[in-house]
Amino acid sequence: MRIRELEVGDANKYRTLRLRALKEHPTTFSSSYEQQRDRPVSVFAERLSSSFDSPDAFILGCFVAGRLVGTVGLYREESPKVVHKAWIVGMHVAAEHQGKGYGRALLVAALDRARKIPVLELVQLGVESMNKPAMSLYSSLGFETYGLEKRALLIDGEYFDEELMALELD
Questions:
Q1: Is residue 137 within a helix (H) or strand (E), and if so which, with residue range?
Q2: How is domain 2-168 classified at the CATH fold level?
């Protein structure tokens, strides 16, 4: 296993894994497969390029035998009043690679890097309230629930709540 920041050259692999995640886990992400599937690789390359050029935003990938099997992103708020906060986004590990510690390794790497960002004090995330394995992982790394967003997502006429969690960086 190797974890590193995704680069523009990873755009095709990133697009493939991201679309798979959106299709297989529609309640996990605010983006949908239908809205992303027709976007060209260049859109994903641009996302990687802009995060790669920023010290306050990044997308990490977990590679196993050269294959991208998981991702996690982080972006920091820009407004001076909230610059002390960042968000974990796009956390996903392909189903056949879950339960092997890759998700934990991705999150630990993201948090290690977050701790090096000046002035950053708080990392937040949202997780679908029925996703107990993800909530357990986040809790085991020190994230605590601070709220519940009722009806956070509406998918095919059904609402899904999202637990809001945060970790204070020391």
A1: helix 132-140
A2: Aminopeptidase (3.40.630)
